[in-house]
Amino acid sequence: MAKINYISVAENLVKKAKNKGANLRIHISNDKSFDVGIRNGEVEELQESAQTSLSMSVNLDNKTASAATSDLSEDTLNHLLDNAIERAKHSSVDESAIFPKYEKLNIDIEKLNLYSNDINSISPEYKIKKAKELESICLKDKRITLSGGSGFSNYESENILVLSNGFSGSYKTSGCSLGVYLQAGHDVGATQDGWSDSARTPKNLMSNEEIAKIAIDRTVRLQNSKKVPTQTVPVIVDRYTSSAIIGFFLQCINGRNIYMKQSIFTGKLNEKIANKNVTLYDDPLIVGGPGSRPYDSEGIPARKNNIINQGVLENYLLSTYSAHKLGLKTNGFASGTSNLILQPGKYTENDLIKSVSKGLLLLSTLGQGTNTTTGDFSKGAYGIWIENGELSHPVSEITISSNIVDMLNGIEMVANNPDKKRSYQIPTFKIAEMTISGE
Predict the structure, then answer these.
(1) Measured between alpha carbons, how far is 121 from 370 in angstroms, rounded to an integer?
(2) Chain centre distance of CA 252
(3) CB of 385 within 8 A of CB of 236?
(4) In the chain, what are the domains?
(5) 3-state secondary structure of 238
(6) What angle do CA 234, 278, 368 make, to 5 degrees?
(7) What b-and-e string marks burial along 41-77, b requiring 16 or more CB atoms within 10 Å of the CB?
């Protein structure tokens, strides 16, 4: 069977739409994936799949409609386009429903190293063996009582985007991951956690021994936890828990929440919102970066964007639609963030711990408990209590609460330990105070 030229398929649809007086955005994904799950030494799940899907967005005089299909036959696509155009005719006019202006893509996609042929270099048998060995190593530790399963997965994806404004682009990505989930203890005293590593190519994955050590340490570290009295203390946010706070901040500056006036940061652009030692930026052009991309879902070329620069809010996360609503220019965030980086400080994580006479090392949160309009933040939490600059004992059944404005302004110290294999490259940081609700 001849290989389908997806660019041609998309460009032909765009041409047909323009002949009918409509603007069109076509996105095609051609994906392959492999997943194996192991539990107690046996294969519990084994999936290998290949899927191609197409989505389209029609814009007819500021009236829109969308459609999607996995059938890329010419008759189906023509029918889908005609149907979408007809539905758009009967939609309401929205003056902000516009396509972005064309921007030339001057990025060498190959040099971004988003895809590796090595993704297909190892056999399914080897992937199963790796997952079994990882689980086996963990279960040899007497502190581990149960396995929640181990697994190996990999994917490769071809992404095609064509717009009637003249943009036409495609790129391939690949990735793989290896991880395990464990339990230590029994019944109400049991703690569960694990670890997984990911990379663009299998050769860049951690060894089984490295993954097992981290997974075991994370699982047993909260054993024999205690409650603490309600109090207001400094909180050190572990780099792998930072998404609970930084992710909430990103929700607050999402363009939709801004123009709907459902954010505490509405109207705060170019104002100081955080401690001056806070510089947060997004860089989609890191070579081989976990979140790197040449352009966003609207064909806006990738660029580094400061979000907070020395405490000052410099960008909201905007799509063309939200930018138009706010009288601003889209800044390439239609797909969200890519490689989000909090500029590292000069301290080690141990320096942060030593600076606290009484407080909490926050290791995980649970629940929702956030309000973008007010900025209020409240979540269940687990961690390790700090006494006199040293880790004392695990803490559970507590709630941490504050306000996003107070938390950002309260970031006193930032460590130098970002994990560059994660799309959230946020080092451990110290917040001056949060309320701990316990006994």
Answers:
(1) 44
(2) 16
(3) no
(4) 6-220 (3.30.2290.10), 225-439 (no CATH)
(5) coil
(6) 60
(7) eeeeeeeeeeebebebbbbbeebbbebeeeeeeeeeb
303, two tokens? 């660029």
DSSP β-ladder status, 231-237 and 358-366: parallel
Q: What is the mean pLDDT of residues 336-340?
A: 98
Q: Is residue 98 scored above 80 in pLDDT?
A: yes
CB 94 within 8 A of CB 323: no
**407: left (phi > 0), else alpha (psi -120 to 50), else beta?**
alpha
Question: 148 near 181, Cβ under 8 Å?
Answer: yes
Please list, in sequence order, all residues whose beta carbon lies within 8 angstroms of the beta carbon of residue 349, skipping any fewer than 6 positions away. Answer: 236, 239, 415, 417, 428
Distance of CA 116 to the CA centre of its chain: 21
Q: What does the alpha-carbon distance between residue 32 and residue 120 come to, in Å, rounded to a whole number?
A: 11
Kindly list the distances between the CA atom of residue 43 and the CA atoms of 152, 183, 322, in Å, as whole numbers in the listed order: 11, 19, 47
At residue 307, the 3 state secondary structure works out as: strand
pLDDT tens, position by position, 27-76: 999 999 999 999 999 999 999 999 999 999 999 999 999 999 999 999 99
CA separation for the pair 134, 39 (Å, rounded): 11
Tokens of 75: 């008759």
Cβ–Cβ < 8 Å for 373, 350: no
pLDDT of residue 279 exceeding 90:
yes
Read off the pTM. 0.95
Q: Residue 422 is encoded by which pair of tokens?
A: 């994660």
Q: Which amino acid is at 349?
A: E
Question: Nearest CA to 334 among 301, 367, 360, 363?
Answer: 301
Q: Within 10 A of 411 (CB to CB), how many other CB atoms are there? A: 21
Q: What residues have CB less than 8 Å from 73, skipping those under 6 apart?
A: none
Residue range 321-337: average pLDDT?
97
Q: What is the DSSP secondary-structure string of 111-169?
A: GG----GGGGSS-HHHHHHHHHHHHHHHHTSTTEEEEEEEEEEEEEEEEEEEETTS-EE
Locate 358 and state its tokens: 């009484």
Report strand pairing: 411-414 vs 424-425.
unpaired
What are the CA-CA distances from residue 189 to residues 183, 224, 225, 385 (Å)? 10, 7, 8, 18
Alpha helices in 206-277 (DSSP H): 208-220, 243-252, 255-259
